[in-house]
Sequence to fold (440 residues):
Amino acid sequence: MGTINQFIEEFGYGNEWFAEYVNEVHNQMRVMNILDTKEYLAGSHAINKRPNEMFNGKEFIPRRIVLQYAKRLLEFGTAYLIGNKVTLTGNEKVVEAVSAVYRNSYDKTDFDLVHNVNRYGNAYEYVFIKNGKITSKLIDVADSYPVVDADNEYIAFVESYTINNVTFYNVYYPDRVEKYTNAGGELHLKGTFDNLTGLPVIYCNDNPVNDVFGRSDLDDYITILDSMEDLISKSTDAFYKYITGIPIVKGQQLKGDGLPTEILGGGLVLDSDADFMFAQNKFDHAAFETLYKHLMTSLLDISSTPGVVIGKVDISNLSEVSIKLMFSLSNLKAMISEKFIKDGMKQRYEKIRGLLELQGMKFTDEEWDTLDVTFQYAMPQSEKDVIDNLSKLKGMGAISIESILGHSPYTTDVNSEMIRLTSEGDKEREGSEINNDITN
Fold:
């Protein structure tokens, strides 16, 4: 495995190698793409750059209709995969220890990192101890510069951001973190800190051309959305521009000065062989509807989103099998995303294990290797059917109370519920013993 010193020497960097690395063209281009994605999600779309036009000798400000479907589709993809809290499985002692760590806002961290992966292709997580508790922070993808050597080995990480024209650098090495700033005009070291968990975890989705940097889901949607916004904006302009038509008089007017412009309902007195009409452009609503519907269908297909989610399909009395078929593409996409998220989470758990050992909680490899995480997709389902199935499994002796609580749609905290059940069981036993003593 290469080292950062070998990397610096091989590529000819100086002592301030991290500043040089951040400013390289390929890194700046990647960050610019991320910033463009943020601007798009904030409402800065291509349609907003549509120039003004001239109409009837005057400047005409055209419609610039923005469709924020991208935000909804990305939110659906995130919520579908991670909207329901993940379930930890494995050795009881290991699960109990990691669950205690998870209570430090890890449910929100999981949601945010999946959302970042969907929006930008990557997420970066640093695990550390704060006030005696194990926690994590997500590093902004626009501030993140993982360092990968020629052998595709991950050897360092640079976090760089600018506030009020002052640039800060947090340089992560496997054993330490160095903080720099150029406040005052000169780059200088602010401090060096021990690094107990190594480099930040890289979460990356599928990218056929790059193993380090993922690909935003937005890249698949943006051209379709641009076409939809262009179509609806121009069609709206065409409808309002030409709806009144142009008045045309054929033949001779008997008296008057033409069609009055100051009142509605005015008329003309025409000769017997004269005629009056409005010439109008016909608005082909059927063509517009076909084009727009086709683009919307393509957008939903590409994003693996059922039309019912955003109200594009009317449904009633669907069976469980029909719902599963309707969400089959969503399940497929979620399963692929789950694979990449799990790869990052396994690295997180190894870092958590190291911190737990520093706190005196040690586990054998056999115990730790049982740890796994289960995702529960947010697919609509009948709560009655779920309860009936769990009841049948319990009657067969094929499932534990804890597993039932974990799958129950009415349970939000399995651990608390188990404690309550145990307490209630103890009270019932105490009451039974008292009654027996009285009877005897």
Notes: The first strand starts at residue 53 and ends at 55.
